[in-house]
Every structure is written in structure tokens, then in C-alpha cells.
Design brief:
There is one protein chain. The protein has about 700 residues and is mainly α. Among the domains are: about 190 residues, no CATH class; about 120 residues, no CATH class; about 170 residues, Tetracycline Repressor, domain 2 (Orthogonal Bundle). It has 27 helices and two strands. A two-stranded antiparallel sheet has the order 1-2. Strand 1 and strand 2 form a beta hairpin. Helix 4 runs antiparallel to helix 5, helix 17 runs antiparallel to helix 18 and helix 21 packs parallel to helix 23. It is rod-shaped, with a radius of gyration of 50 Å. It starts with a helix and ends with a helix. It comes from Aegilops tauschii subsp. strangulata (Goatgrass).
């Protein structure tokens, strides 16, 4: 079973090619081929190995000559069918080509011209099988003889810098050993379910441990290779259980200062290179195995909103792998970072949040044609949803490495949306439909962002954090100016309507039960409708806009009161003029006998007399009842305005305090807003009562006198 596992080669993905050296193919194929060798063939194989050792007493065997000896010793007759023989022969040739040409540990030097000759010999050996048996045998024998001459010189190339004359073979190098061990580690997976470890995993690992001395494997190399094999299998299968084993072995890799000096030198000497785009990139041992891991996890975490949208359990393990590989590779590159984990989490959050925001912005713009809502209003709602997902799903995971992960994502979304909102705020001058749609949505988003940040740093730390990380939208200030402009225009209309209602009043009672005039009912209807419009706007408002609105209403009541009492003349006008006395006219000059100077007689004002005649008692009573109705209903209007304002503003106290840096209360008492109207109406009631009483007295005197 183990040998069959080792036979995997060209079916691997592109990611696994980073560590699989080409020369491994031939050797693995040879090992796999041994399963097909018959007993007779086994004898010939032993004979081939003995031939390879001729003249090598006391020296290492030239491993690359083993495939050549096998080709020479084993013939077509040893195989049951032609196809099996051709597959076996191809494996031996692949081994020679990979080891001698494609991936030697040393360069070709002056022997480079023989590369083409070697490839031609490989081709002729394969083509010989298409000839007649006699011709095929002749061509094959000649090619193998020539191949032996060339292969021997190639296999004995000395390593660079080797002054001892000892031969350094490619098959004895680090690349083969590490790649071979990597292949053997692949046997730990269940053949029926490759996302699971086999039940015999412990026995297999113990067996593989016996190869460490032969292959030059240390515990660090084992943990690194095993972590890579497990991680690659996780990528193929998506089985999260494998990822947890990866984390376990990555954590076993000791820090650089915890390794012995000999092991540090050994790991430093293990290097590999990759040719790409006419350049050669050099890798250390850890880089060759862990760089692809880091590249994969970084790609996922740079857009974690996309790859982990269904849950965060997998994300926890992925971030753990990312931080562990970053630690190991950071030490390998001698990078001294004070807070590498936090810095990397910063980059993940920035990249993923920006990507997610751009996607929802693009989606909102596409739907803008079919939606009746403004783009910025829709974008604010979608941004709030995005932040809710970030705060509830991803931030709890990322906060393990970055305590203020939620603050970073919230402040970034605040900035991204603010960039879109800025041009709209600059051109918002009137309370249009777009303003009414965008302002509340943007303000609601800003408040939610603030609440998310406050949940991390608390209310005490929110003020300083806002000054450091946020540039407030100042929607409340901008909205206040727009609302104030609307209030002023609307109050001018209210005054016009109030004047019209009072001027058109006939001062007849509405009904026997309702003895006040219809004008005061109309005035309250107009004012209440205006108040309903004012509070129906969901745009942010400050206390100043409310005070301005209340002052306008107060002024409207005063205007109405003045119009009600306008026909009321002075009470002196009710007294008839003093008759002209000519009899004592001459005595006026004798001042010695006159105790008091006689007043001059006032001329009768015909217009006032006409108004007095029109001010009948019933009409005076209706005016008086209208004023009383006005002041009695004023308290209800005050309570209604105060309650609606308190309900509107109570949830925003803490947010506004943090955004503005002030601790003023936004819920104020509106009970004194209409004191001017009360004073005016009470004075008018007194005046009408006094005028009515005087008129009744004068009327009674006239009746009695007549």
C-alpha cells in the first residue's frame, strides 16, 4: 500500500509542483515498477544492482546508473505483455532524463553539448520497439552502450566547491530526500476518503521515522513537510480536520533561538531555486514549503467576506495558519516586527472590507435604475448590513490577534461611505426628496458605526477615538440649515393662513355646544399639520431648529390674538361725549371760583362708533370663547411637540456627545416655548372682558335712562 502511494506523480495540482522536484518522477516510477516484477525478473534486478557496484568497493553507489543497469539486464521476455514492458522501460528512461539532464545538483560545464546526444539516445531506444525483433535488439544494444558512456560521465560530475574529489550525485541531494519523504507522508490518507487520515496513521508515521537517518530528516523537517502535505490535502478536499493537524505541527516548529547551532546551520544549507520569467528565485527550506501556504491563506483572508461568508469556524483555523507561517517565515527573513500579527490583520481587514464595499457599491448602482430610493440611501443601508456581518461574524475572530479589529473595520467603512457622501452634502441646499432620503440613512449609518466602536472602547474612550480615526459627516449641521430654511418658509405661509382665517371670521359660534369661532379651529389645524410635517422628516435636527419652529408658532398665535382684539376700541370710547354747556361759558375765565379745570370735549369718532355698534354682545362672547379655546388647547400642543421631540432624540444623546465633543442635552423642556402667546392671549381676554363689561353697563344705563 505504501509503495502504491509513492507512485503518485503527474496527477498532482500546480500548487504541489512547488516542492516536487522533477527528478523524483523516475525514481518513484522505478519503486512502483518493482510491484510488477516477477520472481525471474527479481533475480535479474539483483544482478543489475551487482553490476552497478562493480569497481565501487568502498565508494557510494552511483544511484543514477541503477536504471541503466536495469535496462541492460531486463529484457522484453520478462514481461507478460508488451504494454507493461513499454511502461516499465519509459520509467527507467524518465529517471535517467530527470536525474542527469533536467535537475542535476551541479551544472553541465563542458558536457553540455552531450545533452542532445543523450536525448537522442532516449528517443532511439523508444523507437527501437517499432522495428523488427532482430533490428530492435541491435539498435537497443548499441544505444544502451552509448548511453552508458555518456551517463557515467554525467553521473560522476563533482559538486561545486568539492575539493575532495568525492562524487556528489543528484539522487543523494536534499531535493530528492525531501520530495521522497513528502511522497511517503502522503500514505497517511485514507484511500477511500482522502480528506481523512487512515486509522494506521500513527504506525505509518512511526515507520517513516525510521527513514529519517537515511534521508537526513530531522524533527523540524518532518513537522514542516508533514504540515505542507496535510495543508495541500486540505486544499484538495476542504476537510477542516486536516487543518487542525496542520496547526498542531506548525506549532511544534521551534523558534530560531530554540534550535541548536548544528540544526540552524543544516537548515540554512538547505536551499532550492525556481526558474520563472527568465529569472531564478532562491528559497530557503522553510520558504520552499511554507511560502505557498502563506500565499494561499493570504489570498483567502484578503477577501474573507467572500470566502468565509457562511461562517467563521474555518476562518479561525485559516488565520491561525497564517499567523504561524508568518512567524516562521518572518524569523527566516530576519524581519524584526514589533506587532506582526496586528499589522497583518490590519492588512486583511483593509483589503477585505474595501473589496466588499466596492462590490455592494457596484451592486447598488446596478439596481439604481429599478429602485425608487436614492443610490446613497441604499448604499448606506447595505453598508450597515456589511458592518453588522463584520461585527458579528468576522471581528470576534480577528480580535484574537487584533483587539480593535471592529474599530478598524467600522472606521474604514465610515471613510469609504464618506467619500461617496461628500459631493452630495456639498450640493444639498433644500429639503428635497433626495435629501430626505439620504440624510436619515447616512446619519443612521454613522450612529451605528459609533455604537460598534463604543462597544469595543467604551463611552469614555469613544471621544478620543473619534478625533483620531473619524472625520464626522456633520449631517446634523448640514441638515439643520436645510430644515431651518424649510421652517422659515413654512412659517411665512402659516402666518398668511392665520391672517386669512381671522379676517374671514364672522364670529358666529360653530354650534350651540361649541361657542367659539371656526377661525381658531382652522388655526390649530394649520399649525398641527405643519408640526406633523416637521416631525415627519426623518432628517437629523438640532434643538435650534425646534426652537425656531416653536417661535414661529408662538408668533402665529400672537398675530391671531391681535387680529381678534383689533376691533376692540378703548373703553373711553364707550362713554358718550359731554353735552355742550353755554350757560357758564363766561365764568370759565374766573379761575378763582373754579376748583377743577373743565376738560375739553372730545369730538365723536364716527368710525369707532360704527365698530362699537357691530361688536354685539354675542360676537364679543364668540371672540372671548375663541381666545379661551386658543389658550386651553395650547398646553396640549406643547405636550405633543415635547413628547415627539423627546422620542425622536432620546436614542442619540451619547452618539451626538461623542461626535460633537459636547455634553449638552438634546432633549429639552418645551413647556416655556409659548409663553409669549399665553401672555398675549391672557391680556387679550382681560381686554375683551373689560370692554364687554363696560359696554354692558353703558347699555344698561341707556336703557334705564330711556
Amino acid at each position: 500500500r505504501l509503495m502504491r502511494k509513492l507512485g503518485r506523480s503527474k496527477s498532482e495540482s500546480a500548487e504541489s509542483q512547488t516542492h516536487r522536484q522533477p527528478g523524483l518522477v523516475g525514481l518513484l516510477e522505478i519503486l512502483r515498477a518493482q510491484l510488477e516484477i516477477t520472481e525471474s525478473m527479481d533475480i535479474r534486478t539483483r544482478q543489475g544492482l551487482l553490476n552497478a557496484m562493480v569497481g565501487k568497493v568502498g565508494k557510494r553507489m552511483d544511484n543514477l546508473l541503477i536504471p541503466l543497469e536495469l535496462l541492460c539486464c531486463i529484457s522484453r521476455a520478462e514481461f507478460s505483455d508488451m504494454k507493461a514492458y513499454l511502461r516499465w522501460q519509459k520509467r527507467q528512461l524518465n529517471m535517467l532524463e530527470e536525474g542527469l539532464i533536467n535537475h542535476p545538483v551541479v551544472g553541465f560545464g563542458e558536457l553540455g553539448r552531450k545533452v542532445n546526444e543523450l536525448r537522442n539516445l532516449f528517443r532511439k531506444i523508444e523507437e527501437s520497439e517499432s522495428l523488427s525483433p532482430s533490428a530492435a535488439e541491435v539498435q537497443r544494444t548499441e544505444c544502451l552502450r552509448s548511453l552508458r558512456e555518456v551517463a557515467t560521465s554525467f553521473s560522476e560530475r563533482p559538486a561545486r566547491g568539492d575539493l575532495t574529489g568525492e562524487v556528489c550525485h543528484w539522487a543523494d541531494g536534499y531535493h530528492l530526500n525531501a520530495a521522497l519523504y513528502e511522497k511517503m507522508l502522503g500514505s497517511v490518507f485514507d484511500t477511500l476518503d482522502e480528506g481523512k487520515l487512515t486509522e494506521e496513521v500513527e504506525e505509518i508515521l512511526e515507520l517513516l521515522k525510521s527513514t529519517w537517518r537515511i534521508l537526513g530528516i530531522t524533527e523540524i523537517i518532518h513537522d514542516t513537510c508533514y504540515a505542507w502535505v496535510l495543508f495541500r490535502q486540505f486544499v484538495f478536499t476542504g476537510e477542516q480536520g486536516l487543518l487542525k493537524v496542520v496547526i498542531e505541527h506548525l506549532r511544534k516548529i521551534p523558534l530560531k533561538e530554540q534550535r541548536g547551532p548544528q540544526e540552524r546551520l543544516h537548515l540554512k544549507s538547505l536551499r532550492s531555486s525556481v526558474d520563472a520569467d527568465d529569472s531564478c528565485q532562491d528559497f530557503t527550506f522553510f520558504q520552499s514549503f511554507l511560502s505557498p501556504v502563506q500565499k494561499w491563506v493570504d489570498k483567502k483572508l484578503n477577501d474573507y467576506h467572500l470566502h468565509f461568508s457562511e461562517g467563521s469556524s474555518m476562518m479561525v483555523d485559516i488565520v491561525t495558519v497564517a499567523m504561524l507561517t508568518r512567524r516562521i517565515l518572518g524569523e527566516e527573513n530576519d524581519k524584526a516586527m514589533e506587532s506582526p500579527d496586528r499589522d497583518q490583520i490590519d492588512r486583511y481587514i483593509t483589503s477585505s472590507v474595501k473589496s466588499a464595499f466596492m462590490k455592494i457599491a457596484h451592486s447598488v448602482e446596478i439596481k439604481a435604475d429599478t429602485s425608487h430610493e436614492h443610490v446613497l440611501a441604499s448604499l448606506a443601508e447595505e453598508t450597515k448590513k456589511l458592518l453588522k456581518i463584520e461585527a458579528n461574524i468576522f471581528s470576534p475572530v480577528l480580535s484574537r490577534w487584533h483587539p480593535q479589529a471592529a474599530v478598524l473595520s467600522a472606521s474604514l467603512l465610515h471613510k469609504l461611505y464618506g467619500n461617496k457622501l461628500g459631493p452630495f452634502l456639498e450640493h444639498a441646499e433644500h429639503l428635497t426628496e433626495d435629501v430626505v432620503s439620504v440624510f436619515p440613512a447616512a446619519d443612521s449609518l454613522e450612529q451605528y458605526i459609533m455604537s460598534v466602536m463604543a462597544s469595543v472602547v467604551g463611552d469614555d474612550g469613544l471621544d478620543s477615538l473619534c478625533r483620531q480615526k473619524l472625520v464626522p459627516y456633520e449631517i446634523e449641521s448640514k441638515s439643520g440649515m436645510v430644515v431651518l430654511r424649510w421652517v422659515n418658509g413654512q412659517l411665512e405661509r402659516v402666518e398668511t393662513w392665520v391672517k386669512r382665517a381671522a379676517e374671514q371670521e364672522t364670529w358666529d359660534p360653530i354650534s350651540p355646544q361649541q361657542r367659539h369661532g371656526g377661525s381658531i379651529v382652522e388655526v390649530y389645524r394649520i399649525i398641527e399639520e405643519t408640526a406633523d410635517q416637521f416631525f415627519a422628516f426623518k432628517v437629523p435636527m438640532r434643538i435650534g431648529e425646534l426652537n425656531s419652529f416653536c417661535r414661529g408658532i408662538d408668533k402665529a398665535f400672537q398675530i391671531y390674538t391681535q387680529l381678534v382684539t383689533q376691533p376692540i376700541v378703548d373703553k373711553e370710547d364707550l362713554v358718550p361725549p359731554v353735552p355742550v354747556l353755554t350757560r357758564y361759558k363766561k365764568e370759565l375765565g374766573i379761575k378763582a371760583f373754579v376748583k377743577k379745570e373743565i376738560q375739553e370735549v372730545r369730538p365723536v369718532d364716527e368710525r369707532k362708533s360704527s365698530e362699537i355698534v357691530q361688536l354685539t354682545m354675542s360676537k364679543l362672547c364668540v371672540r372671548l370663547n375663541s381666545l379661551y379655546y386658543a389658550i386651553s388647547q395650547l398646553g396640549k400642543l406643547e405636550d405633543s411637540i415635547s413628547e415627539r421631540w423627546a422620542k425622536r432624540q432620546s436614542d442619540k444623546i451619547n452618539i451626538r456627545r461623542s461626535m460633537n465633543g459636547k455634553s449638552k442635552s438634546v432633549v429639552s423642556n418645551q413647556k416655556n416655548q409659548f409663553d409669549g402667546s399665553r401672555k398675549e392671549i391672557n391680556a387679550a381676554i382681560d381686554r375683551v372682558c373689560e370692554f364687554t363689561g363696560k359696554k354692558m353697563c353703558m347699555h344698561s344705563a341707556v336703557v334705564l335712562g330711556s
